[in-house]
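User: quick one
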Amino acid sequence: MLSYTEENYLKALLMLGLQNEDKPEVGTNDMAAYLGVKPATATDMLKKLKEKDLVTYQKYGKILLTAIGRKKGIAVLRKHRLWETFLYEKLDFSWDEVHEVAEQLEHIQSEKLVNKLEEFLDFPEFDPHGDPIPKANGEIPIVHRILLSEMKENETCRVVAVKDTSALFLQYLERLNVTIGTKITVLEVVDFDGSLNVQIGNAPVRSVSVKFAESLFVKK
Amino acid sequence: MLSYTEENYLKALLMLGLQNEDKPEVGTNDMAAYLGVKPATATDMLKKLKEKDLVTYQKYGKILLTAIGRKKGIAVLRKHRLWETFLYEKLDFSWDEVHEVAEQLEHIQSEKLVNKLEEFLDFPEFDPHGDPIPKANGEIPIVHRILLSEMKENETCRVVAVKDTSALFLQYLERLNVTIGTKITVLEVVDFDGSLNVQIGNAPVRSVSVKFAESLFVKK
DNA sequence: TAAATTTGTTAGGTTAGTCTAACTTTAGTA
DNA sequence: TACTAAAGTTAGACTAACCTAACAAATTTA
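Assistant: Done. Structure below.
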């Protein structure tokens, strides 16, 4: 059985690994930063995880999850996203409130609970932020998606997920009436600063920053 | 903010205190036994809780929750019972499965979560075992109830709660088709061993042991 | 390629929560 | 009331997860 903390390290490694899909290797500092601990602490834990065959790594090298480690990490991520969905759909939590509570709920140990929860939610495919929910068998549905910033002029897309899940960004999206599924048309890409003139739904045309465009996942 | 462990100690003190309603004082050993730790460990924690003004006690004396300690304990109990209700009602858990998972869920920190959960469950008054769910303000509905063993011959009652919540007992009840609300008529009290001849619902008359009768709460 | 910077590790220390073994106090009983 | 048993405490030790400060390796850059 893994401790609360060990689970967090595995999830962190999984998440960081998923971010650069080509190479899922992760560095000590990144991991420490992600978890809000000091690098020295991360090193300690790494040794422990290696001992338990959950990661492979050697001194001064990169970290990689083993098959078992990955599976455990995915299980935590699955719970996290299912709970987020529950909070959003059933308990009326807002977009930006779900994460914090799900961080706690993801560590509840009960196979039955997570599977029943999934059933109760009617086997959702995506969490409230548009991220895919891993299946019970550990499969993570692959979602074909690009950043809004990668769109060309005069292309239209739909929002499928948020990359930045900070409350600040999510609240901003809410103000702009952007949710998962919202239609966005890119009318102009401004060379000067990379900002985009876009039409969001039926609202008047407006400009959004590069930072904004790099924080939203869309699908053509 | 209280730790997971501190919360458990407060809940234990509350529960043990509620058991002898006249005197809610608790001893170190009882508390330790309840929590599955050694008395020495309990003593250590007690000092800490006293330091934080959550309990009053002095060396070799009895332990009593302060108003604050009681309030915190009740908050944990409230969460526990609401989660049990959720698992039972929404996720199809059985009587004897809810406790273990609720032991974990009761420590999730989020005011909003517990209140929304309560609303989602439509403000239940009792948990699946028939125990009252504390209100958000800390009030615990007082339930007028007696043990089945206290009934006289030819009296009829309804089951309102179980005293013993062990899986063994709950599964036995299930086999006898006893749930909250089941009608029981005491036909005879056998002097020899205190066993009762009872009619449970419409089933044929049968005998139940003292131990059984002392494990069920009923209401005339 | 050598120096400087970044990245990662080691050593030693802290805190919370647990334990065992030995001891002290209180309560029950002869 | 004195003794014994039960209840409770203390001292000292352990583990997990964290820290800081000092050091070592790897990478970047001049």
